[in-house]
Amino acid sequence: MTTYLDDLYSKLGSTYHAALLSGNLIFTTSDTQTITETEYNIEYEVCYAPALAKKPQGIPPVVEAKTHEKIERVDPFLPHDPTLFVEDASEHHKILLNKFCVVPHHFLIVTKDFRPQTQPLLPEDLLTAWNALQALKNSHPDAIAFYNCGARSGASQPHKHLQVLPITRPTPLTNLVREVIQRRPGRRETRPGEQFTVPFPCVHHAILLQDPENTPGKDAEDILVETYIKLMDNMLMSIREYAEQEHLSEEERNLVMGGGRASGLAYNWILTSEFMMLVPRRQESTNPTEDGIALSINSLGFAGMVLAKTPEELEHVKKTGVIELIAETGFMFGKDGEGRSAEEEAQKKKEQEVLEKQMGGALSSL
Ligand code: AMP
């Protein structure tokens, strides 16, 4: 039987070192600044990396050859750069180092055959990401896996790839989740398998994972698949509800529903060894300022790590606050009030106050 992901961290280390020395991997140094969101009392990270200002963004369109009906894809993962290949992660996936990384050892879990980045995660994708996190559990217990699904999710490559950041400290989101799931006055702790929310003012769904070691009758794959399906169901319900708001234009409604196609939906998926989260995306970048400044946001933004590539972007993040900014790219609560009646507005306000009260206790001690 073939075994996968044996000794992953040491293989990542040796491949990284060789690729860096040979110039096949480009590590960009960045200045990480911590921002405390006073409204939410959360510490967020802004990574300032001016050298990345020239990197192209957005999924490049599929290039169609003029003659024949052949479709030619510009695909950096097929064939892949052999110097970035770490090892096979499963029968269907290979691990490649991220060629342009800001965090050392940032790696991609790429499907061996071409599959589109608009495809939902399959059981084998979920399990491979989980196995990669488990393989790093001793060296990097706070590693985070993510998937930027669809055109407005912040993905830049059309070939299906999940990603893992082998980081040595919890992300701001992990810290926040650990706080939010704890027992507090007037609130019981969140139990494994249950849903929870964090104080993002936009639609998001999260579930605390059951531990496969302590869940009789279920293995890791069962738990991951069940969790993902539940989150997807809830996300679809939320965006359907959002789309049904009376004041939305037909165009907006269509955008929200991904043009009626599953592949038209965009969302960020985050997995740690503790929880899974989904955030549906309305747009790839934050709302442009008068000076045209807009930041591209991917899953890492929702993990609390935003990348600023110019001094203007950095300034904009500091001024607006990370939570407000990332929420602009999702489906925001309460910012769409134009079409609501006074009663609906009052009801929403009440719900918001309850939420803030519930969150307040947890957040004030962060
Ligand atoms: P995303 O932008 O989230 O779709 O992630 C794709 C990642 O692939 C980016 O972070 C790029 O830096 C990285 N990338 C681009 N070209 C290559 C390549 N030839 N080999 C490995 N990684 C690459």
TrEMBL record:
Gene3D superfamilies: 3.30.428.70. Residues 7-168 form the Ap4A phosphorylase 1/2 N-terminal domain. Residues 335-356 have a biased composition (Basic and acidic residues). It holds the Pfam family ATP_transf. One of its GO terms (biological process) is nucleotide metabolic process. Residues 199-331 form the ATP adenylyltransferase C-terminal domain. Residues 334-366 are annotated as: Disordered. One of its GO terms (molecular function) is ATP binding. InterPro entries: Ap4A_phos1/2, Ap4A_phos1/2-like, Ap4A_phos1/2_N, ATP_adenylylTrfase_C, HIT-like_sf. This is Bifunctional AP-4-A phosphorylase/ADP sulfurylase.
